[in-house]
Amino acid sequence: MSRVRGRAGSNPLAGLLEKRGRLVADGGMGTSLFELGLTPGGSPEQWNVDYPELVAKVHRGFVDAGADIILTNTFGGTRARLELDGKGDRVEELNTAGVTVATEVASESAREVIVAGSVGPTGLLFEPLGELTHSAAVELFTEQMSALASAGSDIIWIETLSSTEELAAAVEAAETTGLPIVTTMSFDTHGKTMMGVPPVRLADWWQHTSIVPAAVGANCGVGPADVVVAAAEIRQADPGVVVVAKANCGIPQVIDGTFWYPTSADDMSAYAELALDAGARIIGSCCGSVPEHIAQIRRVVDSYEPSAQVDFDDVERRLGPIPRAGSSRKRDRRNRRATGGNQADER
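and the corresponding structure tokens:
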């Protein structure tokens, strides 16, 4: 039994990082559930109650592949997201069930495994673009995070956000749990989030708060290349922060009615090496990834020897084009290399 137990005031993530130096996060929960029979439009969170053995199978596959951190199957667990499936009154039940499944799997492992309570965006727009207020968002997040914390999550893992307004609300809610906080944003629009936030702004945002994050980084996006660059830019902006890289496997294509992702398990080696060179200390994957992808990341992390620099030309050569607006990347080739991180190509 090797579970890292989280509690208010402790930071199990920092403790495990101190022991191991670099950690491997898990892969795509949604992708794995689709392979097990979840239908498009179905509720992943409902599976925590209806098919806990299948959710456990996904977690166990990632742990067996070498994941040090598993994210609960609660990405859409806010009341706002659950109401889309008529389950808005089941926030506590479905989030608690998600943590219960994950903690049971973590406890089975011979290694220490951290259970991260996954919290995704509300799916609502903030004022003035929409009707969501800061206080209403804090209330939505607090309801979910309280359930995740009470059920035994070791940390709160806020992911795939696009705006600093939502980030502020989510972090305010997470702080009430007393658990360590990880935040990642999706820089999927020409090197920024869909709401125009560049990676350096995420780093700057944390520097202007009184809260010390457990880790900060990039997830999802349009593929491994943009996540590597985002990780480098965050590391350059704040060398003291623990950086997360959790890329998806590229933009999927629909072939014979199923999603096909262009980044194979073999491609994960180059991604993991470059992410580590960029300064990331927590490496995982998301959409499109299965245990084979995580096993490759594990192999690279275990054998990694630090490099003096990360080269954006090398990123493009090994992972494909780096999505950036216009021709900004061509302005100054000197910004392509940096020690311990990179100068951002655009701000």
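(Above: one complete record from the training split.) DSSP finds 13 helices and twelve strands in the chain.
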